[in-house]
Amino acid sequence: MVVFSNAKEPGTLTKIDINLAKMSSTMVYAQVYQMVTDPSKFVGKRIKMKGVFSTYYDEETKRRFFGCVIADALACCSQGLAFELLKPRKYPEQYPAESNPITIEGDFDYEKDEEAGGFPIIRNAIMRND
Question: What's the first-to-final CA gap in the chain, in angstroms?
Fold first, then answer.
């Protein structure tokens, strides 16, 4: 079955390229690890994932980051991806509490950072509180 969702262009539909929500925790960990270590292979892919909500405020850049974090099968190690919502919400009123379960769906991208090199991020994301 092909799953369709909102896409980069409003009014168009696109399929989910990588559905982490349907994978075992071990497979999710491995897949996210690949996305983090070799992001160029995934840029432009539509991603769906389930995890817990996380947020971080960077004092240096004065920027708040939102993330979806997934623990591995032993719950000892976690992987996560930052995301930006398609329709911004007001923080903290319109966001879940830290560590609450969420599902996000969006377009994989890589944001270049002059100092740290860069990081993967899910853009045009839709977030559901689970």
Answer: 22
> What share of the chain in percent tops pLDDT 90?
62
- C-alpha to C-alpha distance for 57 and 48, rounded to whole angstroms: 24
Its pTM stands at 0.83
Judge whether 55 and 68 are in contact, CB under 8 Å. Answer: no
Helix or strand (DSSP H, E) at 108: strand 101-111
Signed CA dihedral, 91, 62, 125, 96: sign only: negative
3-class DSSP state of 34 = helix
92 prior amide bond cis, ω within 30: yes
